[in-house]
Automatic annotation (TrEMBL), chains A, B:
PANTHER family: RECOMBINATION PROTEIN RECR. Belongs to the RecR family. Keywords: DNA damage, DNA recombination, DNA repair, Metal-binding, Zinc, Zinc-finger. This is Recombination protein RecR. The keyword tRNA processing does not apply. May play a role in DNA repair. It seems to be involved in an RecBC-independent recombinational process of DNA repair. It may act with RecF and RecO. A zinc finger (C4-type) spans 56-71. NCBIfam families: recR (TIGR00615). Residues 79-180 form the Toprim domain. It comes from the Bacteria. It holds the Pfam family RecR_ZnF. SUPFAM superfamilies: Recombination protein RecR (SSF111304).
Amino acid sequence: MATSQLNSLIEALRRLPGVGVKSAQRMAFHLLQHDRTGGVALADALAAAMENVRHCERCNTFSDTPLCDVCSDGSRDARQLCVVESPADQAALERSGGYRGYYFVLMGRLSPLDGVSTRELGVQALMARARDGRVQEVILALSFTAEGEVTAHVLQQALGAIRGPDEQPLQVTRLARGVPAGSELEYVDLSTIAHALVDRR
Amino acid sequence: MATSQLNSLIEALRRLPGVGVKSAQRMAFHLLQHDRTGGVALADALAAAMENVRHCERCNTFSDTPLCDVCSDGSRDARQLCVVESPADQAALERSGGYRGYYFVLMGRLSPLDGVSTRELGVQALMARARDGRVQEVILALSFTAEGEVTAHVLQQALGAIRGPDEQPLQVTRLARGVPAGSELEYVDLSTIAHALVDRR
Ligand SMILES: [Zn+2]
Ligand SMILES: [Zn+2]
């Protein structure tokens, strides 16, 4: 079956997370046999995204403009800043409909064993963001896993030392424990997330 | 989280078989965060393959040259032609080490309900291939599923009417029933495939 361009495609598909050699073969054969238009569209979308998608200057999420759509939306509540681990977690919060403030996306969580330190997470950028003079409350919407807990603890310490408007200390809260322990936020059902937002502590 | 290029990428990834919205998000985030080089390589490999990979003129498998590597190999036994459903099945036979003839790749199997007829499978091209005056035996290495059985039956009828060298009728054989019934050929272990080749009937 081996031709060089087909093999290159199969090898390249294996760089996607969760894709082994069998899956990569199936994907390549499917596109070649049934959906070349889709294959070309995927090539174009990949090239454009790898070239142009960077991080939002304010919230650190992925964006192909300097400010993302959420940060560009002036109608949100500037007194609240919600810290999440990933764009997927942010999307889950948005879908819950329970939050109208702004976000900061860590793009990970502290994991000393994997070499993810406060520096990799851009905690300095979060500190600067929380010091904009309008933020009064920072909501830590982190996963209730061991690494999420460590991250929350470290951020709570750092953020608690910041003064907000009128020299009041920032209020630092966490999602209520309505979220099942040990779970990844993006897989939690929406009403649970909505309740956890109301009961944040 | 929404930016247009990121969303386009997630949508495009969902066209891959077996990839839902969660997997597509994970793939996009992984490439953007950890492997932009891999993302660019995948874009290039996709574009090249969609543009250049066609079907081998002799055996119908995917190839970016008019003749594939196997058909270009003059050292194989031209008296044997093995009919398989897919390039993955062909690869499994090659790995078994039990076969040194040529192949014809159907790129599917007869499935009247899904609109896959003898025409879509290119059975005419197989007939022409089997009439090259050198082929003496056609081995039907098809899956032992209902659709594979129907395909084998139809091909057996058609190929049995062809005369080979010296006006002898073509011998049409099938893999021995060493292959577990109901299974997909590409997932069968190699020694079973090798035995089934020896015991073909
Ligand atoms: Zn932003
Ligand atoms: Zn060929």
